[in-house]
Amino acid sequence: MSNRARTVAYYLGLILVIFGVANYAPALIALVTGGDAFVLFLMTGTLMTFLGYTIHTLGRGASNKDLRFCDAATIATLSFILPAVANALVMYASGYDFTDALFESVSGITTTGLSMYSTSSLSPVFVFARAWLQWLGGLGIVVLTLSLLVRPGTAAYRLFSTHFKREPSLPSSSTLSKHIVLFYVGLTSLAFLTYTVTGLPAFDALIYSLTTTSTGGFSGYISLSGNSALVAMLFMFLSSQSFILYYKVLQSRNLKYLLKSAQLTSFTLLTILGGIVLFTLWRNDVITVFFHFISALSTTGYSTTDVDSIPVAGQLLLVLAMFIGASMGSTGGGVKQFRVIVAFKAFITSILRLTEPKERVHIVKVGGERIEDSEVLMYLTVILTYAAVIALSTLTFTAFGYGLLPSLFSVTSALGTVGLQPSIITPQLPVILKAVLMINMILGRLEVITIIAAFAGLIRLRER
After folding, report:
1. Helix, strand or coil for residue 371?
2. Per-residue pLDDT tens for 327-351?
């Protein structure tokens, strides 16, 4: 085995161990609530832990200096796919259709929230399991691994950079990851307490706290309404902002970073303007309108009404919000606020370069920092690729006879890891289209470039 293969095995083994241990949580819920799922989750967790430890042992002694981006992408991709398959097998062994169980599991780990099953049709253990899987996928198991087990170094940086935009002023990836995970746990705990104060039972408060902070949107048994809906709006907003921004504010004890954040400013303005426009189009009550717009823009995916009942123009506005998505460095999806800001400024810069004297230099700057042309090109490439995947997937849906708007809405919701769900997404959906949505969810969570790099990494590992 080559040094690169051993390095991949080393980190992938750690990830499997963490997910194996994490599987004991739904096993505990199953033990309390009763049912055969206890044995299934216990066996799956033990098997994953043993397999992970074995793979990790094979990678010991490898040097992390040889770990390339494509190898880090391979680890990140497998860290989402393998736990989803394991959870699907547990559901299948419990009597659920395997395709729908896999759909549910992929939706969970990618923090999408689309579902083939209503919450009322699932036992408490599987409601918790999908929320728990989603919470783990929120920050990504890569970040959890970094914060707990990985020493600072080149490999840590490369793994970390697959999930967050790296900034020169920040500490090591491992140190930053620890703070982010602590904040993530703290935000989840605060959400749980706040939901409880609104009157939600402890179990439902737990489910909503797990799925709000992970911006995923799976629901509990009791629907959000009144004060609990307001709490959800607050934590959807907070969870869709960059956790690195929160780290800077807490470390410096200075709120100036909030005022200087281009992403926070952009998200806030879009929320206000988008909510006003949606209210004009929909004419529903203000809370319901802003709830759904924040749900779409934060890519959380909660809904208190039938999506199909929203006017066509309003649905198209929500599609745009889902496309843009949350801030880079958050648990949210979409193309990300930062990329949209860069694309907008690049457009303005291009116009100025065409209309003003050539000797005048125009550069793209965000938050006072220059964005190099190569980085601008990369961001634009991601946005165009994202749009191309939506177009191709939408055409696939329409080829099966589904309408253009519900097809576009479904695909954008999946790729944006949102979870707002039109009526066409049911267990009766053709298997091919379920596969299209699952692929979109994985692409949206890990991004197209990461997936391409992962395939390249697997090919190179096999060649060696």
Report:
1. strand
2. 988 889 999 998 999 999 999 988 9
